[in-house]
Structures are given as C-alpha cells and as structure tokens.
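Input record, target 12 of the design panel.
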C-alpha cells in the first residue's frame, strides 16, 4: 500500500529502517552464529546462507576492516538521542 507521508519524514523513516536492519543482522549474528541455532524470524535457507557467508574469507576481511575503523575513531557521538540539528535549533 501507499502512505501519505511528508518528504522529510519519509527520509527519516528510510534512514531509521536501514539502521534497524543493520542492528537486527548484528543481533542475529551475535546470538545465533556460534550456537548454529536459527532465530525463528530468519528462514532456514537464508540462515544457512548467512552461516556460509559469515564463515567466508570475504566476511572475515570485512569484519576486520570494521573493527580496525572503530579502533581509529578519535571521538564518539555522545550528544544523546537528539540530533545535532535538533540541539542547534533548540539553542
């Protein structure tokens, strides 16, 4: 179906969906990868594909790059749940 939604709200929803999807994938891996048990929300054939992917050299290399990048961060986002734009507007 279609939704009547403001352009800015649509951008916010899309950005948040992307973040939620990334977080979900990380939670599935953290919770289920080592035990080899499948989360009920993941189809069996997709879970088997994920297991093979997570064990691949490509995935391991990607994970290593991500870890390295996080280690090199000089400062982290610590302004709380409000965006910088919202804080600026409130000032």
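The sequence produced for target 12 reads:
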């Amino acid at each position: 179906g279609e939704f009547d939604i403001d352009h800015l709200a649509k951008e916010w929803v899309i950005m948040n969906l992307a973040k939620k999807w990334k977080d979900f994938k990380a939670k599935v891996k953290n919770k289920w990868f080592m035990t080899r048990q499948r989360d009920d929300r993941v189809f069996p054939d997709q879970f088997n594909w994920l297991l093979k992917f997570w064990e691949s050299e490509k995935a391991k290399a990607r994970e290593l790059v991500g870890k390295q990048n996080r280690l090199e961060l000089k400062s982290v986002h610590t302004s709380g749940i409000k965006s910088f734009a919202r804080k600026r507007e409130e000032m």
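The first helix runs from residue 7 to 32.
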